[in-house]
# Entry
Amino acid sequence: MDKTKCAAVNIPVPAEITEIREEIEDVRTFFFRFLDPELERAFPIRSGQFVMCTVFGAGEFAVSLPWSPEQDRRHLSVRNVGKVTSALHALRVGDKIGIRGPFGNGFPYDGLKGQNLIYVAGGIGLIPLRSSIVHVLLHRPDFGRIILLYGARSTKDLMYRPNIEDWRKRDGFETFVTIDRAEPGWDGEVGFVHTLIEKAKIPTENTTAFVCGPPIMFNAVIGELSRRGLKDDRIISTLERHMKCGIGKCQHCAIGRTLVCTDGPVYTYKQIKTLGETI
Amino acid sequence: MYLLAKTDASRFLAALAGRYEMYGPQVHPESGDVFFDRAADPGSIELDAPIPANTPKFTVFPHIERILSYIYDHEAQDVKIVPEDLVRPKALVGVRPCDLTGLLCFDRFFLGQEFVDEFFRAHRRKMFVVSVTCVRPFPQCFCVCTDSGPYAAEGYDVNLTDLGEAYLFEAGSDAGKALAAELGLPPAGPDAVKRRDEAVDRSVAQFEPVAVENKAWISRAVNRLTTGFVKNETWEYIGRQCFECGACSFVCPSCSCFNIEDVNRIDGPTERLRTWDSCSFEGYARMAGEHNPRRPVEDRRNKRFFCKLSYSQSKKYLRPGCVGCGRCVRVCPGDIGMTNVVTAIRRDITGK
# Structure
């Protein structure tokens, strides 16, 4: 997987929050612009990479990139879950944050031409996959079928609903959305996300699957995909770990012999099986 | 090769002190313990002192280091970021071969991977290193098993070997040669190498037999660890013994895990500090939301030994991470320093 040049390695570069959007309970999307016009013009990324985001006065956290490498507003979607992310949630439009990165390998792209692409996401696992989905849709003719299988606990937990509605309307993009339990007013699918694999009648030849979500969902999905004959090196996921530096030095994100920050965060299921540690 | 008369040692130290911040082994006046530390007075450095209790790694990787500071004005929503200037030329004098090997591991890890660690590089730049041949090993030392002593093969500007009335002064760099010329040191006689080798042999003879016996077992342990053939019961035993104090990491010349925290000062800027960390701590891999992939202690303990000995980690250091200084053996309250872990793995293989 080729790498994109890292714009800010050690010192965070300041950026201004331009808009804050409530996504779902406890998850907000922060649109931002870099103060440095040069970075604002060009901050090259690959889908699947991450940045280290500084909330001044609170600290720094690793966060995956939801925006696409092309034609997309820069933003971060973050769950309020710990000390630093709760400080981020307290910020207003106009506040500054710091960005280091982009870091990590990112999703493969060049090897995907001509492939069917299946995106399987659970809950906020859609955040890193969004970048790739927006990207491949800009190059739609390069790919076979493109299918999104998305599941969340309830309608209140569905991320990026306006995006999903847009994608649903597009030709050549198949969208399946499910929630765990039936709700009044919901006429879509009900059940766990791996049950959509059957309903979508997914192809298995010439197919790459991107899977991102909580471990329990991940295992169920992998089992279902493998049973249908999808090869381990055609199942791709992105892993999360506690990170401090992002550049392969602090060692907090070690899994087995790899470091999630520089060897990952994107791994094939074939690689994940050899890590020798629970994910 | 030159000779440095012991009566000339202070002149040698003074010459270095003129251009560098000085660091070296010093004997604590009350306890008699030896610490490698900053020496405001270069005369306090004792070249013949026993092995220091601590490693010199803090000179390039401080216990607590400010890597950046900033002021955030919440009213104006404005930030001012101030990077640190860390370049301060240092001379490390009296570095043991084990510690020097640890420093070289750091060089390869911090400078030689995908990213360069700029904070480390700033400390390491313009550094002058004087190593000493280790003529008085501790009972827990086993550098003879890890190819990292008692004589330093590389990485120094000057290496000194105690020949009794004088030191054999070997220059390992242009800066080292220039210093010998500046001090007007006499060239060493034809028997100097022989006398040096005899001093090294006498040192090797002082190592405990168990340390030397372990030589083969360390490479076998490397093999077992790399291939994942150490029994789970062995890790469980090691995990039960571990107090999770982190001392092994802190005294280790090649341990370099760190944490980063932003600390708010009253009436001052926020400081981003990087501090020593240890993979033995329970919170080491804990993520926001309390998911902890390495909660059981044995899951954490085996990672440290994997990091010290496995092939994949050795690729980052171009050698095993363990340099045989024996300090983890001396400080571990649970008696699971490196030699005992190797012994546990040996029992795991042989059953005795």
Summary: Chain A touches chain B at residues 6, 9-12, 14, 16, 54, 56-61, 79, 81-85, 92, 94-96, 98, 240-242, 244-245, 247-255, 257, 262, 276-279 (CB under 8 Å). The first helix of chain A runs from residue 37 to 41. Helices of chain A lie at 37-41, 83-89, 126-138, 161-169, 195-199, 215-227, 269-274. Chain A has a mean pLDDT of 93.
